[in-house]
């Protein structure tokens, strides 16, 4: 009997080892092809991705960590810009979003001077609405802001077409960090996650992406997904308003460089959540929607407004913030006043 159990145990270990080795090779081969493709695509855009740096990330699912740890490494609270005035700033502005928001800090000084406000840039490259939701539910956010400046009166979220995919990618731990969420009693709540553990196995991850993630972002779920985006904005604003009752919420909708778009952006689910007329529902709830495709006196998709990698350049952000403030002041001359 003892010999029989030993044979079974040895076979289990052997099968498990074979599975892990096969899974590791599969993952390595996938990322090797992916990184080679990324290098070739970026050459066409005029800059060069680093293959070796890209390959370092192929183990990322093993290192995947909760968003709180990831954010702590970023030192987000150091991204502060003050206006060129000697008196106390009249207000402060919080900016959330992905790398587009992060890159907008090149024009933070301009925005600070246009509004006499302290600018906090909480943009996180490759991330989006889920990370904003975590931040506004973090006591660390309010502690840092309240200790360094006047309470914020305005929050800006920079929304680009693929924000939808990032909500689910954060949930299912497809990036280097995760935040799992669920809906209870009509509101978002953070929940414990096991995806980051299961995703260590490429077989599970590939299946999950093909069957679950793909269905979540599919066209048939367009309205459901806009409801989700709307809920993220509504709940995040509610949390901010609990601390700053008079805060105003501005959403800047910005297209991605046409050369960087694929068919999903042009024709499918990403295009819907960006172009749907349902954004009026958020306007009716008091959100200020600023669409850079329709609310600017020039075509923001012109190549002069983009960096080689498709992100807006300083010319673009100077233009966007200047016109945004003009429009806001036109509609409310007291908007940026005490």
Output the keywords:
338 residues; alpha/beta; Rossmann fold; 2 domains; six-stranded mixed sheet; two-stranded parallel sheet; 16 helices
Detailed description of the structure:
By secondary structure, the protein is α/β, with parallel strands linked by helices. The chain has two domains: 2-60; 65-331, SGNH hydrolase (Rossmann fold, 3-Layer(aba) Sandwich). The chain has helices spanning 2-44, 51-55, 60-63, 67-74, 99-103, 108-115, 129-136, 139-148, 163-171, 195-198, 202-216, 222-243, 263-267, 269-275, 279-284, 314-331; strands at residues 65-66, 80-81, 91-97, 117-121, 154-159, 177-178, 181-184, 187-190, 248-253, 288-291. The radius of gyration is 22 Å and the shape is globular. The N and C termini lie far apart (83 Å).
């Amino acid at each position: 009997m003892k010999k029989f159990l030993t044979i079974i145990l040895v076979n289990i270990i052997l099968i498990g080892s074979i599975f892990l080795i096969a899974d590791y090779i599969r993952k390595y081969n996938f990322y090797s092809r992916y990184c080679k493709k990324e290098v070739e695509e970026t050459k066409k855009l005029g800059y060069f991705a680093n293959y070796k740096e890209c390959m370092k990330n192929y183990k990322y699912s093993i290192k995947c960590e909760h968003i709180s740890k990831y954010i702590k490494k970023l030192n987000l609270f150091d991204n502060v810009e003050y206006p060129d005035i000697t008196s106390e700033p009249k207000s402060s502005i919080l900016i959330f979003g992905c790398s587009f928001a992060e890159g907008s800090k090149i024009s933070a000084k301009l925005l600070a001077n246009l509004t006499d406000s302290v600018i906090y840039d909480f943009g996180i490259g490759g991330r989006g609405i889920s990370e904003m939701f975590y931040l506004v539910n973090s006591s660390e956010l309010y502690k840092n802001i309240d200790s360094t400046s006047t309470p914020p009166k305005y929050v800006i979220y920079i929304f680009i077409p693929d924000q939808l995919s990032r909500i689910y990618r954060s949930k299912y731990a497809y990036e280097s960090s995760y935040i799992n969420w669920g809906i209870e009693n009509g509101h978002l709540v953070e929940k414990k996650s096991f995806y980051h553990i299961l995703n260590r196995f490429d077989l599970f991850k590939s299946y999950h992406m093909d069957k679950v993630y793909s269905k979540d972002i599919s066209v048939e779920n367009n309205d459901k997904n806009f409801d989700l985006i709307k809920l993220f904005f509504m709940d995040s604003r509610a949390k901010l308003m609990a601390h700053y009752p008079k805060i105003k919420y501005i959403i800047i909708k910005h297209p991605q460089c046409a050369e960087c778009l694929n068919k999903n952006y042009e024709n499918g689910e990403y295009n819907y959540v960006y172009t749907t007329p349902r954004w009026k529902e958020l306007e009716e709830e008091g959100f200020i929607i600023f669409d850079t495709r329709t609310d600017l006196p020039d075509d923001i998709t012109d190549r002069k407004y983009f960096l080689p990698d498709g992100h807006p350049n300083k010319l673009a952000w100077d233009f966007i913030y200047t016109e945004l403030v003009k429009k806001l002041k036109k509609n409310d001359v007291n908007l940026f006043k005490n």
